[in-house]
Every structure is written in structure tokens, then in C-alpha cells.
Write a structure and sequence with these properties.
37% of the residues lie in helices and 0% in strands. The chain is mostly helical. The chain has a domain of 28 residues.
Amino acid sequence: MIGPVTVIPRTVRCRCPLPATRHLPEQVTQLMSANRGKLDALAQALLERDTLDHNEAYAVAGIEPHPNQRLTARPIKPQPEPNVSVDSAT
């Protein structure tokens, strides 16, 4: 899935409390570097269109979503207007 991303400059050292998580900044940097083209494509599409829906984001990045993650647009059913009675006794 694509979600919020935080970029940690290389000059910042992680002071993670757990030794098992100290490798995460480097792992994220490697993952982002390996997918730089996809991230650039998403950034360019967002600059052009301002928003992308789920399916558009996957298509722009050239990623095939997992079958369980594929979303289809559903029309929004109009909600009935609430019955509001206005008492005219003033």
C-alpha cells in the first residue's frame, strides 16, 4: 500500500529505543531508492491532477494491486431529506 512517507536525512541518527528497530531508517531509504521511479510518477501525476483515487495511484505507479485491495467506484445513494417541521408560531 502507498501511504504517508517521512524522509529522514542521512545526517540524522536514529535513537530508537529497541535494537530491533535501529535498521528501519536504512531499510526505508533502500526501499524508497529502489522504487524511486514509481514515487516520481506518483508525484508528477499529483502535480498534474491534485488527487488520485486508489486505482489511479496503482496504475500511475505501475503496480498491480492485490485482488482484495482493488476498489471499484460505487455511486453514492442520495440520502432522503429529513422531515423538518418549522413551527410558525412567533
